[in-house]
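User: Hello, can you help with two protein structures?

Assistant: Certainly.
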Amino acid sequence: MSEQPYSYIIAGAGLAGASAVEGIRERDKDGPILLIGLEKHLPYDRPPLSKKLWFGQKKVEDIFVHDEEFYRANKVELALGVELVGLDDESRTLLDSQGQSYHYDKLLLATGGVPRRLSIPGGDLGGISYYRYLDDYVRLRSDADEGKSAVVIGGGFIGSEMAAALSINKLDVTMVFPEPYLVHRVFPESLGRAIQERYIQRGVRILAGDAPVSFEKRGGKLVTRMRSDRELVSDVVIVGIGIAPSVRLAELAGLATQNGIIVNEYLQTSNPSIYAAGDNAFFSYQALGQRMRIEHWDNALNQGKHAGLNMAGANQSFTYMPYFFSDLFEFGYEAVGDVNSSLQTFAGWQKENDTGVVYYLEDGKVRGAMMCNVWDKVEAARELIRKGERMTAEDLRGAIG
């Protein structure tokens, strides 16, 4: 590694970090950049890990954000497979687990998050996949043969996507989650229960309102004991119960944190020479007038690039409204804004619980929208949210395509 200070260090070699390189190089063609990350792979897109790789629509070599030539051409030094353990913001120095130090002028914390783990007996057994990384996909893919059995813990985004992917690959799948129905935090109840019924029709067993209390290995199988005292015996166990934002470096430097790393409208932390973007950034969602932390591909892509631009002197407010998407068997959707099922919802269905738009409202104002099997309407939804006008049910009928 260079002993000279880097103009820019990007801590975190994921999508946000790779996108930050693009942003920096739009304004600064020559300032030395170091991209440093814990994984040994080049930055890659995460959505295919639970979607297209399982459906045969992509190969592993297709998911990398850029190839090695991109980093060479943009004079980016790579330090992959490196664990960062220290950050001194006064001396502008990062420290890795091998004692190597790195000096920066501007730093981006794009370290994302780590999978939440189950702190129950057997929660660290080999064979239990806390599914998030490319290496997790490679290991699980080799074990997920047709006819094998899988227990999926978690009924949110990752759990639902993985259950669908494994079922399509002809595994015997059982889903377990404590909520009353699938994707409870986002789907209104009627939609969540309708989607859940589709899973059941596809042969996925659903154990809602239950949770694991222990794991053990028995005769080459994994045994999941449930709170209900039921035992589930399977070949593999996949846990997808969300992530915890990576804030340790920020805390070591005394930066402000709260459900992530707090950043201002320019994506600067409480130290203006340090930025944060992606899954770990607690930012001001300006169209909604509230702080949010968003764990989705589009946010990492755009927030990372914006942070890079600002690190190189753009000084522009981040006003972008990220969207997210998912595919659950034949049901696909795109969503933008605050899609929280605790809000009032109104569904403008063209086909009940299948095709149409679900609006999420507060005080009669649209805060979020989910386009279900309706495509190319994200910008229309953004405009509706930006307007912030009170709307009646009649107003909403047909408001988006």
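That covers the first. Now for the second protein you mentioned:
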Amino acid sequence: MAAYRAREVAPIKFSWAGCKICTAPLTAGGLTVLQALTFLKALAWENIAPGPVSAHARLEALRVAWKDRVELLGDPQKAQVPTARLLSMEYAREVAERIQTAVQGQKPLEQQISKGVQHGTTNISAVDRQGNMAIVTFTQGGSFGAQVTLDGLGLTLGHGMSRFNPLPGHPNAPGPGKRPLHNMCPTVVLREGRPVLGVGAQGGVRIPNTIFEVLAQYVGRGRSMEEAMAAPRLHCMGTTGVEMESIWPADEQEYLQQIGFQVTRGIGATTSAVSFNPKSGDCHAVFR
């Protein structure tokens, strides 16, 4: 504990549809978000009309990203993580072909993945009239973290150890000085080098999926911040179990259920977003 030091790290970046998306690198959840977006880009998802086929493709992009997350990711300073490969367009095209086959065959992509549950996070997104953006996500862990408070300081310790994988040899297995994977992924979107959107979320494992959903709508579909934040959200961690908000179109829910997904009602992460107009200096905020 005494040897711990906070690190200042460079964001990981991805360009799509005239936007540059900058998000938190490992051990944060940003890599999972960008992976799913690279799959959509390789699928030319923005050209697929909204509807059951589009929803199925989007869901499969998330499922593959989660499988890679669960099996391959960990602290890059302590484990071999193929980050460059996972974000490459070569890999994205390979996955896109598999997704296209599943979508055309009207069935879920076959893959085995273990389930996991985590929760307990807060987030704030802020912007000023000069266009400076700050998105800060902090997690204590559910039920007051470790439930231990330091005498005289009033600081409650988190339960970050629960985010390690207990299997020896796994990239996210515990080890000396290792940092566990977590779900937070505060993100800034740039156009022509200027920040136009900042977004972050609270909600444990739901965070990467919800940030992905907002960015898919904002960048992929070219929708406004308000429209992207209002769009229906789903939650899936790589299995065929899918939680969808009640505002999802009924035909898309029914279609996914018919082709083999276990669809239930659920909610996404609670999200805050801010926008900046470089021309007018106008700032706006949305919370949902």
